[in-house]
């Protein structure tokens, strides 16, 4: 039966709650939150998702819901979606962490470039790892899993039932810690190679004092860093895929959801 204009006006507060939760994800999720994507596109994505699931979720809304209570409750709804998207975005920072560590040791941090995904300066190696990790996130279906996680929260946390606690803070801290661990694991081979290169250059400088070790050492370190990154980038596939699914599983666990099926069989 088609909705009348009166029914649509009565459903606006409830629709706003659904839109707030999904909008929080769109505002902070990887790729979707990128400044490269126009605001109209992001708003259209959030509105479309909310319109698709609202007829199913309308039964969760109290009958006496008003617009003012929907705005107040919308803060908690937006926090749920924003926490999920922000956690996944933090997990993808592992690529920038690895690149920054390698760039500092190799001297590549002197020439920073603009990161189009975040519209800020980033190291060259960090940009490479960030793009690769973003591609892995998309190929592994992370964007679909993130949307599925938000939709599943409507079962575990119905509309207007969220109570503020420290679960979101704990989730963000855990994902930040995991991102640094993944970054160190990815950068490990290059860091070891650069450390051995520095020792070798120190021995050469002692044996050949007339050699300008600063100019030679900079070139050698850059060549070693690029070679090791190129050789080990493909070997990091399992680490990067595990990082994506670990981040998704941490998000689902924090909100009382079952781990994703893909995460269980990876």
Give a structural overview.
With 266 residues, the protein is mainly α. It has one domain. The protein is 74% helix and 2% strand. The chain is built from ten helices and two strands; from the N terminus they run ααααββαααααα. Strands 1-2 form a two-stranded antiparallel sheet. A hairpin with a 4-residue loop joins β1 (113-115) and β2 (120-122). α6 (142-156) packs parallel to α9 (237-254). The protein is elongated.
The amount of helix comes to: over 70%
| Ends distance | 44 Å
Query: pLDDT average, as an integer?
Result: 79
| Form type | elongated
The total strand number stands at 2
Low-confidence parts: none
How many domains is the backbone divided into?
1
How many whole angstroms does the radius of gyration measure?
23 Å
Question: Looking across the biggest beta sheet, what order are the strands in?
Answer: 1-2
- Helical run tally: 10
Helix/strand/pairing category: mainly alpha
Largest sheet: 2 strands, antiparallel
Proportion of beta-strand residues = under 5%
Oligomer: single chain
Helices and strands, in order, run as HHHHEEHHHHHH
Keywords summarizing the entry:
266 residues, mainly alpha, two-stranded antiparallel ribbon, 74% helix, elongated
Offer a concise description of the structure:
With 266 residues, this protein is an all-alpha fold.
Write the layout of secondary structure elements.
Elements: H1 5-28, H2 39-57, H3 67-91, H4 94-106, E1 113-115, E2 120-122, H5 124-139, H6 142-156, H7 167-207, H8 213-232, H9 237-254, H10 261-265
Antiparallel strand pairs: 1-2
Helix pairs in contact: 1-2, 1-3, 3-6, 3-7, 3-9, 4-5, 4-7, 4-8, 6-9, 7-8, 7-9
